[in-house]
Amino acid sequence: MPTFNQLIRHGREENRRTDRTRASDQCPQKKGVGPRLSTRTPKKPNSAPYERKSESPIQSQKRH
């Protein structure tokens, strides 16, 4: 716990909230299909990681 003098010198940091809407236009109503990248390693004899791209529906906030 900081002392009174430490609080005067530095103050307290506020928690910053992150914006959870999609990055495109910051519009939560927009839903669609977007690319999702994932890195996987192949099965046994091969070992190099590769990126796999798959199209998946982008989900917005809660559904009713």
Question: Explain this structure to me?
Answer:
By secondary structure, the protein is mainly beta. The chain is 11% helix and 28% strand. A two-stranded antiparallel sheet has the order 1-2. The two termini are 43 Å apart. The model has no long low-confidence stretch (mean pLDDT 70).
Into which percent range does the helicity of residues fall?
10-25%
Number of helices: 1
Instruction: Report the radius of gyration as a whole number of Å.
Output: 22 Å
Shape designation: elongated
Give a concise summary.
It is built from one helix and two strands. The protein is mainly β and 64 residues long. The longest helix has 7 residues, at 4-10.
Reconstruct the topology from this structure.
Blueprint (H helix, E strand, L loop, with lengths): L3 H7 L21 E9 L9 E9 L6
Antiparallel strand pairs: 1-2
What key phrases describe this protein's structure?
Ribosomal protein S12, mainly beta, elongated, Ribosomal_uS12, single chain, 64 residues
